[in-house]
Amino acid sequence: MTGIELSLGMADYDRTGPLLHNELSPEGISLRYIVSPPSETFWRMLKFGEFDVSEMSMSSYLISLQNGRKWRAIPVFPFRSFFHTNIFVNSNSGIKSPEDLVGKKFGLPEYQVTAALWMRGALEHEFGVKPSQITWYVERQRNLSHGGETGFHAPEGVSINQIPPGQTLAELLEKGELDAIMPSPYPGMKSMLNKTDYLRFTEVDNIKPLFDEPEKEGQRYFRKNGFSHINHTVILREDILEKYPWAPLNLFKAFQDSKELAYSRSDHLLRSSLLFAYHYLRTEREIFGRDPYPYGFQVNRKAIETLIEYSSEQGLTNNKIEPEELFVKSTLLA
Predict the structure, then answer these.
(1) CATH of the domain at 46
(2) Residue 164 class from Cβ within 10 Å (0-12 exposed, 13-18 middle, 19+ buried)?
(3) 199 compared with 62, residue with greater pLDDT
């Protein structure tokens, strides 16, 4: 039995829970789990190469490959969303629609993160707002940022500013010093300061979502484009790939089995008397089908190609990456 250390963030606990609780395991592999907030997991892997197998930001993965890292991913995507629907604005800023973001001050945890990459791509391709038309502000200090570990610098024509140490995006939005923010959807290390209290937003009169009905905008985007925004993947360090070439496919199958086991429990909820869970799950399936979080290369190819295009278009990577290059060959047909 091969022992492998796997680091997972906490963004996809529902679908990875059966793995974490040892209800199932990859064939031939004994996993030891290190669970931490996603932003911490990524930073530790980018800085130290700390884990055998790790959840990883798709944007940071693309950049790290072009910087010479020899990691490879399996087509498992633990977290997805529609990130342009996660924008909050100060109601005194005059922002009523995405087009009104032109000329405004916009806060992000940091510029290179995948959620921000997708958000900027959606703003440009769905609403005609280019990154260069917005003034950007970032929260994480460089020594604790993913960009600090990948050598990120502001793309040509884009203005990126650091907010003062100790202040947060939410505080600056509430005070009107920022016009809009896209907060991190999950917590990070305390020193990263990127946990936003969404419940606090409900108590602040001058903070509101950019989209009055974010769910409807997510549905519109999905029906038009055919995919949701892939945020994370799972990577293997090169020495693990060399030593255990059979491990990637077995890991992929285990993640797939974990997700299916989690779905079987959702089926129970769907049939139960939990009114809100029933309507939520039924609506989700009407929009996305049986599997809202598909794994595998072919079914996600369009989303992957779009992400690569956006990364190049926004100056984070060049245009040389082919989608197949991102994943271990044995998993491409899975």
Answers:
(1) 3.40.190.10
(2) exposed
(3) 62
